Every structure is written in C-alpha cells, then in structure tokens.
Amino acid sequence: MAFSTRSYAREYLGGGGSLPPGVKGLIIANSVIFLLMWLVGPIERVFMQWFALVPTDVVTRFFVWQPVTYLFLHGGFMHILMNMLYLWFFGKDLEDIWGTRKFLQFYFFCGVGAGLVVVLANYLFSDPRIPTIGASGAIFGVLLVAAVLWPDRIIILIIFPIKLKYLVMILGAFAFFGLSEPNSGVSQVAHLSGMLFGYVFLKMPRGRKMEVVAPMRESYKAWKLARAKRKFQVYMKKQQGGDRDRWVN
After folding, report:
1. Which of 25, 64, 75, 229 matches a 20 to 30 Å C-alpha distance to 10?
2. What's this model's pTM, rounded to 2 decimal places?
3. 38: alpha, beta or left? (left if phi > 0; alpha if psi -120 to 50)
4. What is the CATH architecture assignment of 2-210?
5. Three-state SS for 165?
6. d(CA 227, CA 177)
7. SS3 helix, strand, coil % of the chain, rounded to 5?
8. Where are the domains of the chain?
C-alpha cells in the first residue's frame, strides 16, 4: 500500500521531513519489544504472561496495566508491519496537526478503550482466558479519524487506487462481519471499538479533547467528598446518640 502522488492528494500528505516524536517513539517501542520477543524465547513467555490483555487477569488478579501494555505486543511480522505502516502513514499527519501530547492522548484513548471493551466482550460472549495483543485498537482509531478528516485522500491498495474513506469502510465491514467468527484469531471487537473511541474523541466538545483523565479525577474527588460527608454525619449521629444515652441513664 502506498500514497498516491497525484497533485490533488498532496494537500493531505503531511509533507517531508522526519517523523514527529510521538509516532517515532511508538514505532521504536513496538519494534524493540517485537525483536526482543522474537529473539529471546524466555522474554516472549514473560511478556505474554504479564503484559498481554487477559480479561481474567484484569478482573480477578487486578493486572490493570494490561489494557495499556497489550498495545505493544504483536504476534508476527505481518501483524506489526501493517500496524506500524498505518501508524506511520496516518498517525504522522494527525500528530502534525494536533501536536504530540494530544495525539498520544488520542492513541491511548482508542487503544485502552478498545482493550476495556475486549475485556467486557470476552466475559459476555467468549472465553475471558484468551489473551489479546496488538496495537490494532489504537490503529483503527487512527484510520477512522484520518478518514473523517481526509476522506478523499487517495491510497494505492496493491495496484488499485481507492479513497481513504472507502478503504476504512471496507476494513470496518470486514471487522463487523468477522464478529461471527470468534475463533478466527483476530480480535474484531478491538478493531470496531477502536474506531468507535476514535470517533468519540474526534466529536468531543472543543476544549475538552485534552481532558481525557480530568473528568475521572473530578468524579473521584466528588465521591471522596461525599463519602467523608456521610462518615461525618454518621459520627455526629453516634455522638448525639451517645449523649442522649448518657442523659437517660
């Protein structure tokens, strides 16, 4: 797959130059981890045991890091190659217009969100002991947003030119119909939910896109305040009750 060099497609290309730091860092991290897993057998076993996304580990053993770390593990050369190519082609342009911080927030918002949906879906419809690996949840979010922002970008798919919006529609259709084959070895749930979270991020009200964690932090503070208030009310009732008891006795 390659970009078209036609003049009407150039406005969508991020231009020349080196990769921005966010995309570069993600590609390097994924590549280094893949090489370590490929070259050193014991490392592969340790990484799969501790860092792949296994719903039972997340829920029962509280391995809460797995919805993040599974994004950096891949099961084969073509698996990582396609993910990193998509990240390079389309993530670069998103980081160029958004900046590194916002792009990384978006990337992990899609990837972690997809991972959490996989945990839920495996418990409801599949086997929660099955591990999931790969950056595809985040990558499909990148593809969806790129298709929304630049729908008419021309992509050369093998030898056939196709607009990006149609390519993403085809990938989404494959993922949707692939849900009927849960034993295919591909987590179509992660693909579709990555697209969903990408769309949600893109449609967040202006000024709130950077605040992915802040609402959770504010909710936690409100919960702590309410809990402290309830404890204080219980304490005061006990004190008042104790005073009355002493007075009666």
Report:
1. 25
2. 0.76
3. alpha
4. Up-down Bundle (1.20)
5. helix
6. 46
7. 70, 5, 25
8. 2-210, 213-249
